Amino acid sequence: MTTPTPVIFIHGLWLHATSWEPWIDLFQQEGYAPSAPGWPGDPDTVEEARANPESIADHGIDDVVEHYAAIIGELPVLPILVGHSFGGMIAQKLLGQNLAAAAVAIDAAQIKGVLPLPLSALRATLPVFKNPGNKHKAVSLTAEQFRFAFGNAVSPEESNTLYEQWSIPAPGKPLFEAAAANFNPHSPAKVDTANEMRGPLLLMTGGKDHTVPEAVTRATLKQYRHSEAVTDITDFPDRGHSLTIDSGWREVADTALRWLRQQGL
Question: Residue 219's domain is classified under what CATH number?
């Protein structure tokens, strides 16, 4: 009897790990062994995370990478990683370190070397950047800010429901680290994009995403031009940053599953 391939889902900023539950159910039905461990300090529930923002605060990119690397180290085989937003950046870092069989990076936060910084991305992250002290704090979004950053491609009602269901405070530190990446030779946002030996990577982008606009994902793809390893991209022209949790999540999940099957995984 073969061991089912583990799949680790990695959330990004402002969403709780339990937002992956529909994906976990689907991937389990498809024969994988899925899990969605939270970031270091993440409480078990949305309610606890909102009540204890300080437990989430001050965790940077390297902390999160090391946290997931330790989880991977306990597995019998290398997992498939599926990450959204900053989770997509973390997945790419781990894949570049040969700690994953493959990775799907959905609307992934920009890695070192990616230069476009569209205005919508600046506006989406303004709640963090407006106060330099937020680097060491956890910052919450209002329902209105969530609508701009995540829910702009769905109805106001659906955006508000998603906000109530899944939104949690997020550490400011990763955003400050990513913003300074191109000025820091040792930036934690650096990914080994030239690695020839890594597993396959699929980048996904939402054409209406305000937080990680398509230009950022296309520029990320170019960073991999020096590697012969499989690097694919697919876009969802009418989708925003909420594409993993909104009513259209199944199309995104099915696309990921189809691609994994094409890679023999």
Answer: 3.40.50.1820
